[in-house]
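User: I'm putting together notes for a lab meeting next week and I want to include a structural view of one of the chains we've been expressing. I don't have a solved structure, so I'd like a prediction I can at least talk through. The sequence is below, exactly as it appears in our construct file.
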Amino acid sequence: MPTSIHDHIAAHLNPGGRGLLPGGEVLPDDEIDASHGGGRTRWAGVEYAGRGAAGVPELVAVAARDPSGYEPLYAALCEPDVVAQLDDVLARVRGLDLDTGVLARRLVTGARHRAPVKFGTALLGSADTELLLLVGRHEEFTRFAVAAVRATHPDPEPVLLALARGVDGWGRITAVEQFAEPAGAEVRDWLLRGGFRNSVVDNYLAFRAATVGRLADALAAQEIDPELLDGASDILCGLIEGGPAEGVDDYDDASLALWLLVGHLARHGTDLRHFVAVARVEEFLAGPGWDERYARGWDLARHDSLVRRCRDLMADPRWHGLTLRDLESPDDRAFQDASYAAARLGIDRFPATVRRLRATLADDDWFTLMSQATAERLPTILELAGSTLPLGELASGPADILAVARRWSAHVVLGTVVTGLRDFPGQGTEFVLTAVRSPVLDNRAVGVRTLTGWGPESWEPVVQAVLRVAVAEEPDPTLRERMAQLLI
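Assistant: Thanks for the context. Below is the predicted structure for the 488-residue chain, given as structure tokens.
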């Protein structure tokens, strides 16, 4: 009998309490067409010939009273228009004030398609907390678990905290975004000491951690624990880096928090990650935009003093030895910190990056490697890329794939390499043409941009032949037009 989504998640719970074991993210209906509740294989119970999303509340009312109404409801929940309007349907069902507990638990524990699980999860009540926390461990269902908690728990914060602790990635982001001021002490402490970290981008949650966690207040203590020092360093570095969410200029207490952090780092900074924090603060302080910041209340004297303090800390000779040590570290975070430190300290990190890639083939390190590319280094980079990437398999022809899943990591590497090759006309043509023939739309676009940047005078004769085939087969009209413009 096929595995239910509930049983799949239960079998893949990470004993460490956060996230899922390998294989857990791929749901049993992963090969099912998303137009039918998440699968290529339709729900085989009954056909739904009702009124689309508008008819679902009536089906819920019937199924809540009579178990024989379950299959028609299940079939309806797998229909494309119902899936697309799931939030609206849920709102209408909640307005009926039905006793849906038994039905919701049946959908959550027995369904093999994700849409019925989402619907059932959002209808669970306060008596179903353990079930909510279990299903919510998979990020596909976290926001529906959040919706159920907020709708049914008189004090949702402790349950939301338990949910946030147990998830990673987008699930962690979804759960943490529920916290707002004034939050309880347990939530504040957890946010500042690592609750903002996730497998997508920590910067998504840095601002919320700083504000809801009252970062400046925490740093005002005479002494802080190492966990808070590391968390505060990463939060403020995330705000400085900016990106997908609010940045340092959105944080009202940024000046005070940075001043206090650098003071703590001066007294207790011992690890290379602490050098990185100081160096990123210095980089921000020495950058542009200060006239506007002074107008918003930043103090000129404190700014100048903070720059001097950062540079004094960075001049400590111990950082050189720690950088050389961690450039050989197998740990991803340690190596990335060492790579940044090497760039700031004038240490050549290219040999260590090549050694690391030969040993680990880590996707993220290709961006670091390509950022160090020069004409002299490019042959080494292309030799390594050629021994790593199955170019023939990657040039399988165009498709409508918009994003690259983790299991397609070779396509990520290819895109990184081809992006970097734009600065080296005529070099690595085989990689660029592989990108043009990729099933991933972004990679095809990257290949076209690189060829455009090179100009026809740098092309090998084979480029025109490949472009003609690509134009004939390209499914995206915008990219097809850009390809056609390159034909001579």
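A couple of points you could mention at the meeting. Residues 389-487 form one domain. The two ends are 58 Å apart (CA to CA).

User: Perfect, that's what I needed.
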